[in-house]
Amino acid sequence: DEILKGENDSLDGKVVAISGSGNVAIYCAKKFEELGAKVVTMSDSNGYIYDADGIKVDIVKNIKEVKRGRIKEYVDEVKTAKYVEGKRPWGEKVDIAAPCATLNEMND
After folding, report:
1. How many CA atoms lie within 13 A of 17 on its CB side?
2. Whole-angstrom Cα distance, residue 51 to residue 46?
3. What is the mean pLDDT of residues 23-41?
4. What is the DSSP string of 9-40?
5. DSSP state, residue 95
6. 46, 66, 82, 94: which has the highest count of C-beta atoms within 10 A?
C-alpha cells in the first residue's frame, strides 16, 4: 500500500492473485481485504481456486486450518468459484500478484 501511495494510488479496488493457502497466504489475503483490495485466487500444491467475487478467507481458513483439507474443497462451499487443477494462478488477469507459497515460483 505504501508503494502505491508513492504513485498517488492505493490498494482500494485492486484485484489480487495469491498463491498458497497456509498462514502466510491467509493473513496476506486478510490484510489485502482490510486495505480494500479483492483477492481472487489462492492455491495449494494441487491447483488453485478462482472466485471473481473475492475469496472468502474465513472459508479457506476453515478448510485449511480446521479441516486440514485441500483448497479444491472451496468450490464445494462457494458454487460461483472454480478450481483449476495442476496449475498456478499466474494466468488470471489481476492487478497484483502475491506469491505466498513457493520460493521463486514467479519464474515457473
Report:
1. 17
2. 17
3. 97
4. --STT-EEEEE--SHHHHHHHHHHHHTT-EEE
5. S
6. 94
Q: Does residue 14 contact residue 96 with C-beta atoms inside 8 Å?
A: yes
Cell of 86: 495442476
Q: Residue 27: which residues within 8 A CB-CB, separation 6 or more?
A: none
Determine contact, residues 27/61, Cβ cutoff 8 Å: no
User: Partners of 107 in the beta sheet?
Assistant: none
H or E element that contains 4: helix 2-5
Would you place residue 28 in the very low, low, confident or very high pLDDT band (cuts 50, 70, 90)? very high
Q: Per-residue pLDDT tens for 45-103?
A: 999 999 999 999 999 999 999 999 999 999 999 999 999 999 999 999 999 999 998 76
